[in-house]
Amino acid sequence: MRARRVRAIAWKEFLQVWRDPRSLMIALLMPFIQIMLLGYGVSVDIKHIPTCTFDREDSQRSEALLKRFQASEYFRIVEVESNYAGVTEALDYGRCKLAIVLPATFSQRLTDVGRSEVQAILDATDDNTANVALGYAQSVVAGFSADVELRQSARRGSPLQNTPLALEPRVWFNEDLNSRNFIVPGIVAMVLALVGAQLTSLTIAREWERGTMEVLISTPVTPSELMIGKVLPYFAIGLLDAAFCISLAVFWFEVPFRGTLATLLFTTSLYLVVVLGIGYLISVLIRSQIGASAIALLATLLPTMLLSGYTFPIDQMPWPVQAITYLVPSRYYVTIVKAVFLKGAGLAQLAVPISLLAVYAAVIAFLAARAFHKRLS
Amino acid sequence: MSETQQDRGVTIAADRLVKRFGAFTAVDDVSFEARRGEIMGFLGPNGAGKSTLIRILCGLLRPSGGRAEVAGLDVARNPERVREKIGYMSQKFSLYADLSVMENLRFFGGVYRVTGARLAERIKFAIEMAGLGGREDALVATLSGGWKQRLALGCAVLHQPAILFLDEPTSGVEPTSRRRFWDLIYALSADGVTVLITTHYMDEAEYCNRIALINQGRLIALGSPGELKRSAIKGNLFLVDCDDPGALLAALQTAPDVSDVAPFGPSLHLLLDRAEADIPRIEQFLAARGLGWTAIEPISPTLEDVFVQLVKRTSPVEAEP
Asked: What's the pTM value of the predicted model, to 2 decimals?
């Protein structure tokens, strides 16, 4: 290993990226676009669910219940219907996701029998929203129902001071349950997977396509000097992109950052070695830039989006898919980066994912160094 | 490489090299030696195996059989040590077009670990040699063919290699640039650099000290241009100028005393066993068949004549229609 040769290759590679608009765009613009798109676009918080009401009784009590829906930030009453046809139409045309229908005997049955039904009609084309909406609707109705019970028992002369059981929730790590707080840190994993593997996937293929490889391998450069020299500039770009994304996360999206920068730098470097190594390995194996870049996209971005736990929780996946996620390096990094941001986790708490990521990095670096041979064909 | 080889200054020794790609044999049992400071040309048609041979000698391809020694080292065993002593210009232009002249030179300086004052001196030499003074910061993509080619040579000799491999370096370069390129090659050779160059330009081959003629992977002749002409052409060569070379070609193939006739541009090259005595009989033969000609005059053979003769001799099946 000769530092002089590694330096010559790294500098040449840097100049080539600097002068290639396509690479520059991937390196500098993509991270910005991604973090803005995902930071603003992806939100799994469900608020202001468009709702319509159909009150068939129009009594004081039925109105009181509907007022509670109106007061909740989870619902937005967009239409008030006067018949079932109106309800059907509002759901059919997607103007609302939820319809609350109160029967004509609502307050009468409450008084006579002590109970009444409330109908909720849900548009379940998006089952997640439907489920969440149902949950919120149930809690609004339960709150109303508890008040009714309190008043009835007071009238019977045995006043209940309170409902017997009450849950006192304390939410840790993401106190205001803001989904952005756990999505934005994960974007760092996405950006690095995209930028790192994309740029390095071009690096060897480009030399083959342009015919420069033939002379390069006629020089005394060794395969490991070539690999390290070629990956170094992208490592620097990757760290820069990571710093940029993390700054935006903390200062723009105001995601709480409770860990230490040292932990984040160490784990990010480890993850970068993995994604850059994967990109380089693909570039060695696929001698065309288009082919290599497409495969790098499939090999890094897709698993990061789908299988890293970034968008879909891993413990809700069927077990064969869960098994596959262990092969996805971003799985470890997403876990790490969320824990560093939200829990302030240090190296000790993250020993397991860090070790697994380190093993991954070592295996990839070994394979990448071995894959390149200084021979034609 | 044996003691005696080194005493004789042998820097490249190929011993029964074979390279097969599947069923196709690209290099077929080729042996030769090249000495220090020698300019050795590999001449042959496209696809004859010249590039494959050079790539084996540079360690870019593993031979299917045989041994290659370069600068006293077995190429298969010490590829990296061999690479420190050689310079290589591939057939396709191989510098970084998106880097400037200076950046390319610095890159190869770094890769060959040329440093400090020596690097500055070598870069100065390369820029002067290529005639690129004042264009150090120009992107290579903006240079014309002759400049690119001389810069590629400058990069290949930046580390002062003992042996230089040039694979069709002058293809696609205009004639004046080609002449200038050959002047550089002569200067390198005078400094003791062994130059192995492939070409399919017959006129260029004349500039070499020795020529290896390659056809279908086989080495069919090896010698100086003069030696090859003397040994390959048995008889006397004549140029036949005429209006209908096709008809004359067909007729002369059956004429007596003609050992060979071949088309050569718009005219014919005629090889006769004896010189003056045969000419009148040939003229009679053509006149009897009502065929006309403008002139029949003696000429000295070119390397193309040598090549045509040797190819016919080594592959008789193809030569007969």
From this structure: 0.80
